[in-house]
Amino acid sequence: MIILDNHMHLRRDGFFIDAIKDFKRHGGTHLNFCPYTDYKRILKEKSYIGIYEDGIKLASEAEEKTGVKIFLTIGPYPIDYLKMKEIAGKEKAMELMKKGMEEAYKLCIEGKAIAIGEIGRPHFKVDEQTWQESIEIMKYGMALAKDADCPVLLHMEAASKQNMKELAKMADEIGIERSKIIKHYSSPLVKKEENFGIFPSVLATKEYASEAFKKGHYFMLETDYLDDKRRPGAVLSLRTVPRRINELLSNGAINEDDVYRINKENPEKIYGIELEER
């Protein structure tokens, strides 16, 4: 049985291999790993490529040591723009963010990553100019993803019918399929009248996972695991997705067809990848 955590992070100085082994012990088979960025390093190196390459190496090492298949989603984290704008000014920050998108696009084209992300806009209130600049950068990433025929995974404020509709309008304007826009850290907005075709990556809490399965199959599950020893288990422990799925299977709330659809059919269709039993 294939079980995918659709969005998580790893750190070499975190629990790293031990966390992945725990994921595997509970039945997890595949991970979508998003490497952390570092705006100070980006300003120094004038590029994101070093960070992306480090992430690729980290994933390769972890996969070799654990046998868990690890895919990568890479891109400039939206809060980087705020930090870099404050230090280097708007023009330089915008240039570096767009360059980071282009570097991620190239790695997606080369098959080294499956999506551009997590990109997006701040999840907290900022001034209107910064908000619009962040949207400009986000749309740039969407346009590149369209050209690469890959998804974007979005970091932004909490999902709602209103902003899902807004994202759908953006997708249509750019010409990218709505299903290629993945809202990470989503509540269970699984029905089309709730998500307008934008694809929800639902946080795998007990409440959210149960509600999502009751509504249908148009979603994937994630933990947004941070791999931070100062906050063990944040946002959710890496074992959460396989544990949650097995709990729902054992109490009869879902069946193996449900598991197959969200853990194999959906990621294969959205990302254009193949997932095999591990």
Level-2 CATH architecture: Alpha-Beta Barrel
- Tell me the domain tally: 1
Q: What would you report as the Rg, rounded to the nearest angstrom?
A: 18 Å
Number of helices: 11
Work out the helicity level. Answer: 40-55%
What structural category characterises the helix and strand content? alpha/beta
Spans where pLDDT lies below 50 across 5 or more residues: none
Number of strands: 8
Per CATH, what is the topology? TIM Barrel
Q: Tell me the name of the CATH homologous superfamily.
A: Metal-dependent hydrolases
Estimate the global geometry from the Cα principal axes: globular
Strand order of the largest sheet: 1-2-3-4-5-6-7-8
Mean pLDDT: 98
- Could you tell me the strand content as a percent range? 5-15%
Order of helices and strands: EHEHHEHHEHEHEHEHEHH
Largest sheet: 8 strands, parallel
CATH secondary-structure class: Alpha Beta
In whole angstroms, the N-to-C terminal distance is: 8 Å
Can you characterise this structure?
By secondary structure, the protein is α/β, with parallel strands linked by helices. It has a single domain (4-271), classed as Metal-dependent hydrolases (TIM Barrel). It is built from eleven helices and eight strands. It has helices spanning 17-25, 39-45, 49-66, 78-88, 90-109, 128-148, 161-174, 192-195, 206-215, 240-250, 256-271, and strands at residues 4-8, 30-33, 69-74, 115-120, 152-155, 181-186, 199-203, 220-222. The chain has an eight-stranded parallel sheet. Strand 6, helix 8 and strand 7 (199-203) form a beta-alpha-beta unit. Helix 4 (78-88) packs antiparallel against helix 5 (90-109) and helix 5 (90-109) runs parallel beside helix 6 (128-148). The chain is globular. The N and C termini lie close together (8 Å). The mean pLDDT is 98.
